[in-house]
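In this section we walk through a basic example: taking a raw amino acid sequence and producing a predicted 3D structure, encoded as discrete structure tokens. The instruction is simple. Fold the sequence below.
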Amino acid sequence: MKKNIKTLCLALLCVVMVLSACGKTDSEFNNNDFSWKNMQLGYDAQPYFTSIIQDFVKTEDGYHYFDRTSENANKILMFFDKHLKKAVPVCNKANCSHFSDDIECDAVFEATEPVNCLTYYDKNLYSCIDTFDSNEAVYKTCIYRISPDGSKREKFIDLFSGNIEGISVFYHRGYAYAALNVGNDKLEFYKTKLEKGAKPELIKSFDGYDITFYDFSPYKNGIAFIYMGFQDSNYEEIDNKILYYNPETGEISELLKDIHADSFRVVDDCIYYTNGKTLYEYDMVSNTQKELYGFDNNVFLSFDGKYIYGDTRVSGLDDISKHYVYVLDTNGKLVDSISIPSDFLCYFGDEDYLFQLVDMDNDFNMLDESVIKAFDKSQIGTGKHEWIVLPGH
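The resulting token sequence is shown next.
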């Protein structure tokens, strides 16, 4: 049991909730409770992308994303124009090849400095990069600011230094939140204002064993997330619950406990979560719970403001022909099931597109014969499942 939990936790170490920006200051946005129907692009989180591998972010007129399919493991920053339905490298250099082995290309991020957790805020892209500081002779996890055209890249915030065993980072309404493991018996929860040179501020320390925070969902004016850990060093009693952080009061409270949740989303006053193969709905007003749907395999959830999505890849399928993304309405009615011929994770997506990393030769090697595909969600419920292949480099 401990090994399975640890595997899931490691897969979820880099988690982010995505921001987009329209060039407004925080004061120009309303600070009302989060609403799926009235999401503020540039301020509110975008929890419709997967929190397992956060390579995609919605920006103006399309999406920026990291293409991780190059054979040398370097990443290429790309932009997919949702109107033209075309993807291009984010580099304006003349006569540039834009190949992944060209480190002079503005779109290339070298594998020696892992880049994760892409987001977009205040007219710029932001991403976490693990880098070695030669002056201080120490490894650091930093937030870098990147111009949308790729021409500028600068270290923006130093988050943590040293031998970091596990860190989760996510963003919402002008702050970066980080859950940092200190040894195996403590987790520290920080927030950092998205301003150049800002320092992390400790919110709270949690005592327990192998604690992790994962899967995040905006709720009211704050954030909700899954807490999972063990109460003692024997790793026998799992403490699994959904917590809510209120930035106005600084308090952390329990929304739901003793649930063994794999993933969840908060929609208005309801929590949708999975426990194994079962999808549940918990009504926070009436304090009632009901089963909504039973899947064939364990799934990871997403929500795009209209539909609930369940990706069966999280269950570690032996037969990839059983890899589906199920589409349900909020009443638990199955609307569509999209077959995905790959054992790689679905990135999910917003109300317009679904994105998927596809292993073309099914050899489970992400750097060999793999492509990213886009699915127009207007096809949902029509019986059509046509994908657009995005160019690789």
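Looking at the output, two observations stand out. The chain has a mean pLDDT of 83. The two ends are 40 Å apart (CA to CA). In the next section we compare this with other chains.
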